[in-house]
Amino acid sequence: MPTTAIEHAVRRVIDDMHANLGQELTIDEMARTAMFSKFHFTRVFRDVTGISPGRFLSALRLQEAKRLLLETDLSVADISSQVGYSSVGTFSSRFKSCVGVSPSMFRATDGFAPELREGRTTTAQDSTRAVLRGRVWLPEDRSPGYCFVGLFPTPAPQGRPVRCTVLERPGAFELADIPAGSWHVLVHSVPYGHEHLSSGADRKAVVSVGRYGPVTVHADTLLMPADIVLRPLDIQDPPVLMALLDMRTSALRAVAG
Questions:
Q1: How far is CA 208 from CA 142, 156, 167, in A?
Q2: What is the pLDDT of residue 123?
Q3: For residue 88, which of 80, 105, 221, 229 is within the disulfide window of CB 3.0 to 4.6 Å?
Q4: In angstroms, what CA-CA distances link 177 with 118, 151, 172, 184, 253?
Q5: For the residues of the chain, what is the DSSP string, one character each?
């Protein structure tokens, strides 16, 4: 089957997810929407998006929760129910794990994080001294801006990055002291003048994204340079769940390690 037909089927499922965020959607139902067998659908969906259908649906629900927290006065309990959670405690725990702050803190800070904290320290067991260098490229038809570069265990920008940096503009980057493991480099950028847009809403028109990997790191690994070309955010890209660094001031804020 041509790739375009596969992507069309996956997009049809994602559209159905958007339309039914508060409902329970099973893998069988998603596979029927895609018109694939259950097992073939799960593999195809992961090939196109980088993550499983269940994780993608969960990310869409939390993305909608972020929007509701910023754009409505609904309580956290009401938002939890509206995006398909039967337990507000489970919702709050999942939100904090993926976004980096609690729902109430996300609302209080207008969807931004005062600092970015890396989620994993290097121990003697997983120390590699590996350094990943690379460059972020922006096509001429995209507007430049600050770039967040993060190292994650999956192709989904959620939770605390293993390593991260913020660039003033697309260009060279370096991520040092990378632990042993398999990692994905994910880049997220918004144009100058749009720093006031938090990560809570869907901003496909202005958001640029890029990814590289997986990168497998062992002891004393010599990593090849990573070239990452940014492109517009697409419906099949996993949502950016982590609360982004507040770049609304003129000075670039330091990234906390």
A1: 8, 15, 14
A2: 57
A3: 80
A4: 12, 12, 17, 15, 21
A5: --HHHHHHHHHHHHHHHHHTTTS---HHHHHHHHTS-HHHHHHHHHHHHSS-HHHHHHHHHHHHHHHHHHH----HHHHHHHTT-S-HHHHHHHHHHHHSS-HHHHHHTTTEESS---S-PPPTTT---EEEEEEEE--TTS----EEEEEESSSS--S--SEEEEESSSSEEEEEEEPSEEEEEEEEE--TT-TT--TTS--TTT-EEEEEEEEEE-TT--PPPEEEE-EE--TTSPP--SPEE---SSSPPPPP-
The predicted-structure confidence for 89-114, as pLDDT tens digits, reads as follows: 999 999 999 998 899 999 998 888 77
- What residue type is 225 in one-letter code? P
- Nearest alpha-carbon partner for 46 in 98, 6, 99, 4: 6
Assigned token pair, 157? 């920008």
